[in-house]
Amino acid sequence: MTTRNHPDAKALAEDVRQRLTGEAPGSPLVLAPVTGPGVLEPLRRLVAVEYQAHPVELVAYGTLLARFPHRPAAELWVTLARIVHEATPKLREVARALGMSETDLAGRTADGGAYAFHGAMSWIATSGSQSAAALAAHTDMQVYYSGATAVARRLRETGAPVPQEFLDYYDDPGDGALEELALAVAQDGLDRGDNPQEALFHAHRVSDALLGVWKATTADPA
After folding, report:
1. Which of the residues 26, 129, 139, 203 could staple to 151 if both were Cys, CB 3.0 to 4.6 A apart?
2. How far apart are CA 199 and CA 193, in angstroms?
3. Does this model's pTM top 0.90?
């Protein structure tokens, strides 16, 4: 019997991780001043950008569930959608603690790069392969949670005048089991014949987009 060899999802994830080597999680927000009158403004921008991304993510995961309803993929999309759905009211509490209004939550940052994530997720959801979507989800978890915890823990450790709600929301290391599920779904897609280079391309798009979010929070609001 001939054994068919398939590309390895873990190797693709490692490629993404290697590309991120040297990029401090949450940079440059993690290096922003922790004293003075401007401390909260970058945090407000982060909350607004994430809040506006939630509807995009919900539509994306719903679309992916319709396109790939089999196991283990369906479990991943349903779980991710539930996490985002449950996070939205919590994020609104963070916004209130930061003194943000509904207008503030709907406001756009000066740096349009903050919204590259919307386009990347939308394209993947409608046209990407199963492995591309799953590897993108794995990348999202890796980049988002590492950056969020780095920012929150620095603010906490330096005693910055930041609401506890912000620290509690963003000091979240994520779920290792969910990351493993994303890799299993990516591997299942590769085993079904998905193009590994396509998956890698879109994972890099998502990592670049998320790095752009951190940068946009500290951009000069011209």
Report:
1. 26
2. 12
3. yes
| Averaged pLDDT in 10-residue chunks for the chain of 222 residues | 67 93 86 83 94 97 98 98 98 97 86 86 97 98 95 93 96 96 98 96 95 86 56
Buried b (16+ CB within 10 A) or exposed e, 154-193: bbbeeebebbebbbebbbeebeeebbebbbbbbbbbbeee
Tokens of 13: 């994830």
At residue 147, the pLDDT reads 94
CA proximity to 186, closest of 58, 68, 36: 68
Of how many residues is the chain composed?
A: 222
**C-alpha torsion sign, points 10, 16, 22, 25:** negative
Farthest CA pair distance, the chain: 69
Amino acid at 38: G
CB 33 within 8 A of CB 206: no
* C-beta of residue 192 within 8 angstroms of C-beta of residue 134: no
- Rounded to whole angstroms, how far apart are CA atoms 76 and 94? 26
State the Rg of the chain over Cα.
Answer: 18
